[in-house]
Automatic annotation (TrEMBL):
Organism of provenance: Bosea vestrisii
UniProt name for this protein: Flp family type IVb pilin
InterPro entries: Flp_Fap (IPR007047)
Biological classification of the source: Bacteria, Pseudomonadati, Pseudomonadota, Alphaproteobacteria, Hyphomicrobiales
Keyword Transmembrane in annotation: yes
Sequence intervals crossing the membrane: 20-39
Keyword Transmembrane listed: yes
Domain of life: Bacteria
One Pfam family of this chain: Flp_Fap
Keywords noted in UniProt: Membrane, Transmembrane, Transmembrane helix
Length: 57
């Protein structure tokens, strides 16, 4: 029983998981910003390619 309590206390004191969660949160914010930027740029880029297409044919 004492060993179980010691393992439980070690698990609760371990902070390595908190760092992984922080990195995952930062990565998710970056990916949300990238998707938002691509959705904003997409229509204007599509219009430019649509304008160029007739001259290529």
């Amino acid at each position: 029983m004492e060993r179980f309590c010691a393992l439980a206390l070690d698990f609760l004191r371990d902070r390595r998981g908190a760092t992984a969660i922080e990195y995952a949160f930062i990565a998710s914010l970056i990916s949300i910003a990238a998707v938002a930027a691509l959705l904003e740029i997409g229509p204007s880029l599509n219009a430019k390619f649509a304008g160029i297409l007739p001259s290529l044919q």
